[in-house]
Amino acid sequence: MLEAPVLITVSLLYLGLLFAVAWWGDKRADQGRSLIASPTIYALSMAVYCTTWTFYGSVGRAAVSGIGFLPVYLGPTLVMALGWIVLLKMIRIVKANRITSIADFISSRYGKSHGLGGLVTIIAVVGIIPYISLQLKAVSNTVSLLFSYPEIVMPHRSATMSVGADISFYIALILAAFTIVFGTRHLDATERHEGMVAAIALESVVKLVAFLAVGVFVTYGVFDGFGDIFDRVAQQQELQKLMTAIPSGAGYSGWFSLVVLSGLAFLFLPRQFQVAVVENVNEAHLKRAAWLFPLYLLLINIFVLPIALGGLLHFAGQGVDADTLVLTFPMSQRQEGLTLLAFIGGLSSATGMVIVETIALSTMVCNDLVMPMLLRHKRATLAESKDLSGLLLAIRRGAIVVILLLGYLYFRLAGEAYALVAIGLISFSAVAQFAPALIGGMYWRGGTRGGALAGLTAGFLVWAYTLLLPSFAKSGWLPGDFLAQGFFGIELLRPQQLFGLSGIDEISHCLFWSFFANIGAYVAVSLLRPPMVAEATQATLFVDALSETGQGGAVLWRGRAQVSDLQELVGRFLGPNRAQSAFAGFARRNGRDGDSKPEADAKLVQFAESLLAGAIGSASARVMVASVAKEEPLSIEEVMHILDEASQLRTYSRELERKSRELTAATLELREANERLQELDRVKDDIMSSVTHELRTPLTSIRAFSELLHDDPKMHLADRTRFLGLIVSEAERLTRLINQTLDLAKIESGRADWNGCELDLKEVIEQSIAATSQLVHEKEAHIEVDLPDNLPLILADRDRLIQVMLNLLSNAVKFLTPGSGLIRVTLSRRDDGLQVSVADNGPGIRPEDQQLVFEKFRQVGDTMTAKPSGTGLGLPISRRIVEHFGGELWVESVPGEGATFRFTLPFPPVQPPAAAPAA
Amino acid sequence: MHRRILAGDRLIAAFLIGCVLFNYPVLSLFDRPSEIFGIPLVYAYIFTAWALVIALMAWAVERRFK
């Protein structure tokens, strides 16, 4: 099933799936229901950090240096711990200034400088090309491997192979085409690509699953667990050296350099900057990502060692390149499904990197390299065109193709001499050069454009000299002499022992010298002269990004411009329709609907500039806006004054917001209090209307019997006595009804008197039973009791509890069949309190009535045959009493077999009895 | 606000702990040819320390304050 057509079909289907996800993500973003608004997706998109370097290269690295593959994952872990500080600030700055890329960031910080943006772009492109070639190498190696399945033939490429016969050339072209379709379908008004992020997150899941699957298969399928692999390795003398942290001789300094380098690269690689900063939806996502992303790194690395060591054991002497083990292991075991999964995982890690990296780089090339050149040399031609968005897209697409072809070229020239990880480290060292200018720019006001230019140039040159040129030399493309003898035969200039520094690995060496030159030049040149206005303004906005001053909103522009000119300008880059709707939206938000002054105010000018900055970068946007407006420069004092004022204004408005929030809260409380009062009123009315109805029944009988007595003076004595008896009992019922109604009203309104004291429930129950013994006796019933001694005391009101017990007992008695009645009263202990149950063997209660009995004035039972004799308030009152003391009262019953009323009372919380609820 | 500062400080603490645990000289203490549960000591150490730092970060940001 691994023939070429199958492979190609599966790969294309997978790319199609990614495309569909991206399309869906973009669609959801347009609808305002973002697909990627979750910290998990954010963390997964950051995992674009894991490329084929991780997927294939880590195993290769581990096979030669044991745990030496790990420091590049520890660095990002540490940086994520600081993410809440550093990344947060970067995100704030990027959002406030509509920054599109890392070149834009640096250029914007140092006064929106074209030169600086261009330099950063060049460094990024040159630095990243080896990294892209790494992806091409990994994919083309795996494809050639699969083509020879089931044989395992290491891909061999001779330098004389024609480009047309080289698989990796076609792979580069396919990736370019895919990226173009993927990332530059249309020019966004914003710099964000939600669909791309969704697809990247999916790829991160796929590569993790694929790698774990291979890892589990190797560890537990081929071998017998971790212990088994390590045991076998322990028996091989030559593998012993892999069991310590620094077998390669690089020393702990090499380890430390890699931790630092990877941490910096994690922040400053164009693709990481894109997903972590530019594409961030919500800065709160940083928090969960702070541990989710390192966790991802940990998971994807767990099986690296078992696969590497297992490979060394399993393929000993067969010449299998350890960089391919993730694929060759399942191949050698004829696991076709797993092989395909591994291949797709590797493809995911390569495409994810290539897509995001080239999109980020192409944006930089377009905004910070090509546009400035066009603006300088072809301003007139540009001015003629009405809509330049097509041109922008074409530039970006061209840049993608060129970057991928350069990657291919590097692969042809130098790719064979190095393992995957070594190639990647060259790129890491290049982007680390951004650190001084970028981090310095975020925390130091004194950094100037000159300083940044000098530092970046110096660092870049040293990097090229100590790492890039040697990589060409080692692959035979440059004469190798200068490595050994130094340029012009001067030994001190040997690229990898610069000024005689030796004894450390080449990465540490490059890192030290390049940072020495970079930081030194940056600081020294910055200190030569004070910052100019534009630099100082941007410095304040960047350095104070987390405080009041830096949060945008301040209007730092003075001059005259026409609305129509601005709108036309924006329209030329974003398309006229988009410009129209953006300007209309701005007018609406600022309450200027229908206001058609031709003169634009400073706020609108800044809005137009930020719109443009999203499309062509801040430096070009500045130049374009300046070209249609008459500007008056602001002095540094004026700028600081405006910034101060803006920050004060924001403080006031925040104060105002706080006050208004407090007011809202107070209003809400008032409303709630009012509602509570109304509710009480309603309860009272409710009871009144039920009560009057219930009172009428006994009153009516009393009146009827009284009238009979009154109207018939000659009535027999026996009848007279009977009627009087009825009148007395109805009057008693009336009194009871009124008492209980008052009682319930009191309880419900919270005005009842409660006397809490510790009491022995057993005693209460015995007293209640004694009080009802007469009733029980009349019905000729029996009471069985089961009341254990020495139960803990509980906290309740004695009289109220007796009221509850009397109620339950008299209820039970009421429904007993005379002569055969039996009541069981049980007291038992439960985990958190005591439980009392009163069971009878009467007719029971139907399930549908079991809740009704607790409602006010509801007497269940067959009202046709048995006249209700209670008030219908006993159970509701009892339930409220029990609930007041934190317990529950309920009934269990099977019709025909009696009913059991149970209630619980919790033990008092452990505290002095004085604090018991008493009111 | 207070809560946010506390979480930030805890993350910085996690960063510092990680810096110490992941590097020389602490790393070298475990860089010995011995095994724990059949796994070479330094492997077991670095993965454990890593997991610990991640757990610390998770605790710092996810814990609900009372």
UniProtKB/TrEMBL annotation, chain A:
Its EC number is 2.7.13.3. CDD domains: HATPase_EvgS-ArcB-TorS-like (cd16922), HisKA (cd00082), SLC5sbd (cd10322). One of its GO terms (molecular function) is phosphorelay sensor kinase activity. Pfam families: HATPase_c, HisKA. Residues 649-690 form a coiled coil. It comes from the Bacteria. This is histidine kinase.
From TrEMBL, chain B:
Keywords: Membrane, Transmembrane, Transmembrane helix. The chain crosses the membrane at residues 12-30, 42-61. This is DUF3311 domain-containing protein. It comes from Candidatus Accumulibacter meliphilus. The lineage of its organism: Bacteria, Pseudomonadati, Pseudomonadota, Betaproteobacteria, Candidatus Accumulibacter.
